[in-house]
Write a structure and sequence with these properties.
The protein is of the alpha/beta class. 52% of the residues lie in helices and 18% in strands. α2 runs parallel beside α3 and α7 packs across α8. The N and C termini lie far apart (70 Å). The relative contact order is 0.09.
Length: 311
């Protein structure tokens, strides 16, 4: 084990150090409370042996600070010349786990450490299990928030992000913009080439949009069917229009060929942009509805174009 020994007596430190080294433990030495706290943060020992009486900070205060640093249970034993029942109780309530009487008896020290090793091993195992559980939880959350076909965010996660960003945009008095996107004549494409080709097209479009929308805080999500939504927090209308136009060009540049329509050589998208300033009275539904109306305008006036709400 890696053991931190904090004691202002150099003689006591050396005696304990010699005992611990003979038992094949790694030893860290501190002359006072403040140094012990620093070493605890930097070295993360498995166990702490802590003198109660030290000049700069008594052991009770030190153990309380150590427990505040790490909520996880790490054994701490007090070292003391004499311990009455009141001091013993005070130490336990402060955060210590046991006491060792000075002068340190090597046999008792070895027995105490033997017991502590079992606890340290259990703590390490619990940490491993906790980390694995955290990973599995993150994985489950990611899957729950991910669209199964395209791999981008799903509608459920989109609704959560929109709600969060809307509240933030009201508080921060920034502009919130969204882009609604629809793949042009997708039903015809699907019917002509088949659903597998349609799925491939959806994945390619989603991947390209994700590549282009890379700013932290922005989001690309599948809105439903062949529709997508881009959330752009703290983005003025001009910036949202530029992003929409970039997405339109990039999707067309994928050159996903379609022979089902005479008027279109490649798969294209139509886009509706909506931007709201925080001082305007509105709701999340207002922003979506406004973008949807702009998208409808783009589809009705030729498709493969960007239209802006209110224009």
């Amino acid at each position: 084990m890696k053991i931190l020994v904090a004691d202002d007596s150099s003689v006591d430190r050396m005696i304990v150090r010699r005992y611990l080294l003979s038992m094949d433990h790694e030893v860290l030495l501190a002359e006072g409370g403040e140094q012990a706290i620093r070493l605890f943060k930097l070295q993360e020992p498995d166990l702490v042996l802590l003198d109660i009486r030290m000049p700069d900070m008594d052991g009770y205060e030190v153990v309380q600070q150590l427990r505040n640093i790490e909520q996880g249970w790490r054994p701490i034993l007090f070292l003391s010349n004499s311990v009455d029942s009141e001091s013993f109780a005070k130490g336990i309530y402060a955060g210590a786990d046991d006491f060792l009487h000075k002068p340190i008896d090597k046999v008792i020290l070895k027995a105490k450490l033997y017991a502590m090793e079992r606890i340290v091993a259990m703590r390490k195992q619990l940490l491993i299990v906790s980390r694995e559980l955290a990973k599995e939880t993150q994985k489950a959350t990611r899957i729950a928030n991910q669209d199964g076909l395209t791999g981008i965010a799903n509608r459920r996660f989109l609704d959560q992000v929109l709600d969060r960003e809307f509240r933030r945009h009201i508080r921060s008095l920034n502009t919130l913009s969204i882009i609604l996107i629809d793949i042009d004549f997708f039903k015809s494409f699907n019917d002509y080439f088949g659903h597998l080709a349609g799925d491939d097209a959806l994945r390619l479009c989603a991947q390209k949009m994700s590549e282009m929308v890379f700013r932290g805080g922005d989001l690309v999500a599948r809105f439903g069917g062949e529709e997508f939504c881009v959330v752009l927090p703290n983005t003025e209308s001009e910036g949202a229009i530029n992003m929409a136009e970039t997405l339109r060009k990039e999707i067309e540049a994928l050159h996903i060929a379609r022979d089902d329509l005479e008027e279109q050589q490649y798969l294209t998208i139509s886009l509706g942009v909506s931007s709201f300033k925080a001082e305007q009275k509105h709701t999340v539904e207002d922003i979506i509805h406004s973008a949807d109306e702009a998208l409808y305008q783009a589809k009705q006036t030729g498709r493969n174009k960007v239209c802006v709400a209110g224009n």
